[in-house]
């Protein structure tokens, strides 16, 4: 230190680089081109009117009046010499404001004059030149797209408005720009109340001829919402649409295939539609081809397979029974495929058969996940547990025992782990049945995939056996059950786990 001071060398432990972060106020309208003077009186006046609309303050008449002021400013902008870029900005912001105003159904229905004034703002924008009349993208909203949204929303206000507006906006369903077409498809459900026949006609046209992913996704979303209101039409359209869903590419988020699969699932489980059930059977016959559809069918079970145990509501009980029956059907088909795989071995399978085996293994795993997470076994803290009481657990265990036994025949280690977690959660309801099912999974499905070699497997099994020996020791008075316990421990001992060996040696004194 002394030498460093003498040589005038810094003794501070400074970093080789430093970061400094500062925030500065953004210049208003920084995005305007330099040649546009935002402070020029004519420009500033229109920008101020836009700001008032953006603030969206006051009651509905005040906000409508602010929108009318912007519309008037846009109309006179060319004569006043307002910069084109500012005029376009005003059109865009007015376009965002109009659908918001059109959502105020209560206000508009109370005073038809307000609805008329709003329509007078929307109608001129339906012929706006933006977005350009080129194919474009579904995100190309523009003033014309925004006006299409607002116009369709106004069709929910009254029969008179719907009759006046629909003939004007119907051509926009096949507008040259994809953004406008998407806005129409995304909101054509607004025709439900007053122009329902036209709505179904438009839906039929989309099913038969629409090619755009965004439009077909919007149609699928409408079918998901309409299923409980017109089952026959929805079924017919969904069945027609499904063959085209396989062409979907570059999927982000919910896909059309998944939406249609959800519709088909509820058409069968809630409304007993045989054609929907027939399509599910087709999917099950080729699970490698319809992996996505079947995954959505299984995902739809969440919550429904435990419904009605507490409430006793008829519809919840019906859905539960239908979903459990569907789960049994899926597991049986998948288990049959996996049993064939175990019997023949991988070397004798074709590539198509290997894909089928992988698809069936995923289905088995997904069913196990739904049973586990729907039951509330994974709930933490103050989360609601659907099967909190002993009676509900006992009823659920009775219903799912056939499924769990089938899963235990062929399940992979991940599935068996969750099955055992689920069964431990249900243990207080029927300790004997729960142990028998755990032993069945460990002794049957476990060895097929090396479950006994998993560290989490041995730790969990030893913990559960400890609970049984402490709280339910009497069940091992049954010789068969005692043999199952020893057989399970033998599997883990042969896998080399010291904890299993210690427990097996101490078993005589513990029993």
Structural commentary:
The protein is mainly α and 511 residues long. It is built from 24 helices and no strands. Helix 8 (142-154) runs antiparallel to helix 9 (159-169).
Low-confidence stretches: none
What is the string of helix and strand elements?
A: HHHHHHHHHHHHHHHHHHHHHHHH
Number of helices: 24
Biggest sheet details: none
What radius of gyration results from the CA coordinates?
Answer: 33 Å
Shape: elongated
Strand content range: under 5%
Summarize model confidence as the mean pLDDT: 91
Query: What is the number of beta strands?
Result: 0
Outline the secondary-structure elements:
Layout: H1 2-6, H2 41-55, H3 60-75, H4 77-80, H5 84-102, H6 105-110, H7 112-125, H8 142-154, H9 159-169, H10 178-187, H11 196-209, H12 213-226, H13 231-245, H14 256-269, H15 274-285, H16 291-299, H17 314-344, H18 351-375, H19 390-410, H20 413-426, H21 431-449, H22 455-471, H23 479-494, H24 498-510
Helix pairs in contact: 2-3, 2-5, 3-5, 3-7, 5-7, 5-8, 7-8, 8-9, 8-10, 10-12, 11-13, 12-13, 12-14, 13-14, 14-15, 14-16, 16-18, 17-18, 17-19, 18-19, 18-20, 19-20, 19-21, 20-21, 20-22, 21-23, 22-24, 23-24
């Amino acid at each position: 230190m002394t030498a460093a001071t003498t040589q005038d060398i810094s003794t501070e432990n400074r970093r080789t680089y430093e970061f400094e972060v500062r925030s500065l106020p953004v210049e208003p309208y920084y995005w305007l081109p330099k040649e546009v003077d935002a402070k020029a009186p004519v420009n500033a006046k229109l920008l101020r009117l836009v700001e008032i609309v953006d603030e969206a303050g006051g009651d509905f008449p005040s906000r409508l009046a602010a929108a009318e002021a912007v519309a008037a400013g846009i109309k006179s902008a060319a004569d006043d010499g307002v910069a084109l870029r500012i005029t376009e900005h005003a059109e865009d912001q007015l376009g965002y404001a109009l659908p918001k105003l059109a959502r105020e159904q209560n206000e508009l229905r109370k005073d038809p004059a307000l609805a008329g004034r709003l329509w007078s703002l929307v109608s001129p924008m339906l012929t706006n030149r933006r977005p350009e009349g080129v194919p474009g993208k579904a995100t190309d909203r523009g003033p014309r797209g925004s006006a299409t949204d607002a116009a369709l929303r106004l069709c929910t206000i009254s029969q008179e408005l719907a009759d006046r507006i629909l003939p004007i906006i119907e051509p926009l369903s096949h507008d040259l720009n994809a953004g406008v077409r998407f806005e129409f498809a995304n909101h054509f459900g607004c025709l439900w109340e007053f122009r329902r026949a036209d709505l179904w006609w438009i839906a039929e046209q989309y099913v038969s001829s629409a090619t755009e992913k965004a439009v077909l996704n919007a149609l699928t979303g409408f079918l998901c919402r309409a299923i409980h209101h017109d089952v026959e039409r929805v079924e017919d359209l969904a069945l027609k649409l499904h063959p085209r869903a396989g062409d979907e590419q570059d999927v982000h988020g919910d896909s059309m295939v998944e939406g249609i699969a959800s519709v088909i699932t509820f058409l069968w489980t809630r409304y007993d539609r045989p054609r929907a059930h027939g399509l599910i059977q087709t999917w099950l016959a080729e699970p490698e081809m319809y992996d996505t559809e079947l995954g959505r069918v299984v995902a739809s079970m969440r919550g429904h397979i435990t419904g009605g145990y507490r409430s006793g509501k008829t519809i919840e009980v019906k859905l539960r029974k239908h979903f459990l029956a569907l789960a049994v059907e899926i597991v049986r088909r998948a288990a049959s495929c996996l049993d064939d795989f175990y019997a023949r071995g991988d070397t004798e399978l074709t590539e198509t058969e290997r894909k089928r085996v992988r698809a069936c293994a995923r289905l088995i795993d997904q069913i196990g996940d739904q049973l586990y997470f729907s039951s509330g076994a994974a709930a933490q803290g103050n989360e609601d547990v659907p099967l909190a009481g002993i009676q509900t657990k006992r009823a659920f265990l009775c219903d799912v025992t056939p499924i769990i036994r089938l899963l235990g025949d062929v399940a992979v280690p991940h599935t068996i782990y969750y099955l055992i977690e689920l069964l431990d959660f249900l243990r207080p309801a029927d300790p004997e049945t729960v142990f028998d099912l755990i032993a069945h999974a460990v002794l049957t499905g476990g060895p097929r995939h090396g479950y006994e070699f998993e560290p989490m497997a041995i730790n969990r099994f030893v913990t559960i056996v400890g609970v049984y020996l402490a709280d339910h020791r009497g069940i091992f008075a049954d010789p068969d059950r005692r043999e199952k316990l020893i057989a399970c421990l033998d599997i883990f001992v042969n896998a080399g786990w010291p904890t299993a060996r210690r427990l097996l040696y101490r078993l005589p004194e513990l029993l």
